[in-house]
Amino acid sequence: MGSLGFWRLAQADPDWIAAVDPDGTRYPAGELLARANRLVHGLRGLGLRPGDGICGLTPNGVDGLTLYLAALQAGWYYTPINWHLTGPEIGYILADSEAKAFFLHERYAEAGMVGAAAADVAARCHAFGEVAGARPVSDLVGGMPDTLPEERTAGATMHYTSGTTGRPKGVRRPLNGLDPDDSAELMSFLLGFFGITTGRPNVHLVTSPSYHTAVTQFGGTALHMGHTLVYMDTWDPEETLRLCERHRVTNSHLVPTHFKRLLGLPEEIRRGYDLSSLRWMIHAAAPCPVPVKRQMLDWWGDVIYEYYAATEGGGTIATPEDWKKHPGTVGKAWPIAELRIVDDDLKEVPAGTPGTIYMKMAGAGFEYKGDPAKTAANRLDGFFTVGDIGYLDEDDFLFLCDRKADMIISGGANIYPAEIEKELLVHPKVADVAVFGIPDEEWGEQIKAVVEPAEGLSPGPDLARELLDSLAGRLSRMKWPKSIDFIAEMPREPNGKLLKRKLRDPYWEGHDRTI
């Protein structure tokens, strides 16, 4: 121990550019360290102690990064809040997390303060920000020393799962009591699995909102390994290429939707940027159609890595070489993780047989805060599941089928929407697609597809027929959608997660779903 960790690196080299905000402002490590230190001193003055929590509703950039660096050296839990949530949803997380301090950026003042104004929250939560009803952050940190706090101890992030049912729950891990830098160095194993190296001139591009677990983990770990973080405010395909060229980006975290949009750029734009610095472009969050992945490998070369994981812990990784030998795989279990595929009776199934995916990671105990019943549920001999369906091949490479909750049961047959979505998504006239089951009196469920057409195309019966005909010879007719509806823009979160319930629920109104 002793070579990694942001606070250690910043003291050794305060002039290293640790972060670049979306507006291009560059922040030397020494300045970022001083900001985090002053914040710790200020919050300790309000009585915060190890084990307490703070929440942040901030856009991508140094403001949120400062909260993360303060909490993780003071033994606090840091919860970044999804800025797409409504006021009551934000208020719920503030109350449930028992946050002692809440930092609100003026961009989200209206939604955030509605949630923060609830009496049970306001009574014990200090609110800071340049907004009505909150104290300016300058009041908290003004006059505070920028020296390293005493009695430093490692904190942790506590992200809230989006979940498919009920309210979100905070995934809370026990604090390890280690020195913050030593704890950060231990976490570097995550990027180490991909072969990512430490130090300069590595640059990590933050493409998605930092309130997502993976974005925080990959960006934070890259920083602790000495990489410069370059933040995007909103994602744009050509801007991604421009930033990669300008900052000589070496690694990033992406989702398949990004790939589809990048491949949709005109050829002259795609070829107009120098991407020779790219070395580890990592993706996850949703299944990636095999043809889309192949096109990205042809364009960027063998720099595209894939993984499958959950906020709760555990996962797989597929190197470019692995994927080429096993197209469509999301990889093999991490060296510190295990996988188990079981049937509905919780018995392990043979290779090639789909079942529920259970995972376990060494030393990764967690609880859903305030919900022991949910913590105990979905467990099997120390393994846990988030309800995904998949199978292992003969070489123990994992392939995803779908979420159990999304599976369509039509005429007694199990149909996985993800398989159909991947076949439709490769069509050049499709920008995005969602497939799900809707009520059918005879079959129980029938297959519905909702398509976002490629830019400039007019939706209608002719396009629907063309898309269905394109499935001939590639997909069994029992898996073809019975009908296709069109939508102007698919409801996706910025991390690529499709909000399928928003599409599916209207079709089920007035029906008692028993499947």
Short synopsis of the structure:
The protein has 515 residues and is an alpha/beta fold. 31% of the residues lie in helices and 23% in strands. Among the domains are: 24-161, Rossmann fold (3-Layer(aba) Sandwich), CATH 3.40.50.980; 407-508, ANL, C-terminal domain (GMP Synthetase, Chain A, domain 3, 2-Layer Sandwich).
- At CATH's second level, what is the architecture of the domain at 24-161? 3-Layer(aba) Sandwich
Number of strands: 27
Task: Give a quick account of the main beta sheet: strands, pairing sense, barrel closure.
Answer: 9 strands, mixed
- Mean pLDDT reading: 88
Strand order of the largest sheet: 2-1-10-9-11-12-13-14-15
Q: What's the gyration radius in Å? A: 23 Å
The CATH class label of the domain at 24-161 is Alpha Beta
Strand content: 15-25%
Spans of 5+ residues with little confidence (pLDDT < 50)?
none
Count of DSSP helices? 19
The CATH topology of the domain at 24-161: Rossmann fold
Oligomer class: single chain
Shape: globular
- How much helical structure, as a percent, in the residues? 25-40%
Estimated structural class: alpha/beta
What is the terminal separation in angstroms? 52 Å
Topology:
Layout: H1 6-12, E1 17-20, E2 26-28, H2 29-45, E3 53-57, H3 62-74, E4 77-80, H4 87-96, E5 99-104, H5 109-116, H6 119-122, E6 126-128, H7 137-141, E7 156-157, E8 171-172, H8 180-187, H9 189-192, E9 203-206, H10 213-224, E10 228-231, H11 237-247, E11 251-254, H12 256-263, H13 267-270, E12 280-283, H14 290-300, E13 304-309, E14 315-318, H15 320-325, E15 332-333, E16 337-342, E17 355-361, E18 367-368, H16 372-376, E19 379-380, E20 383-384, E21 388-392, E22 398-403, E23 408-410, E24 413-415, H17 417-425, E25 430-440, E26 444-453, H18 461-469, E27 483-486, H19 500-508
Parallel strand pairs: 1-10, 3-4, 3-5, 4-7, 5-6, 9-10, 9-11, 11-12, 12-13, 26-27
Antiparallel strand pairs: 1-2, 8-18, 13-14, 14-15, 16-17, 17-21, 19-20, 21-22, 23-24, 25-26
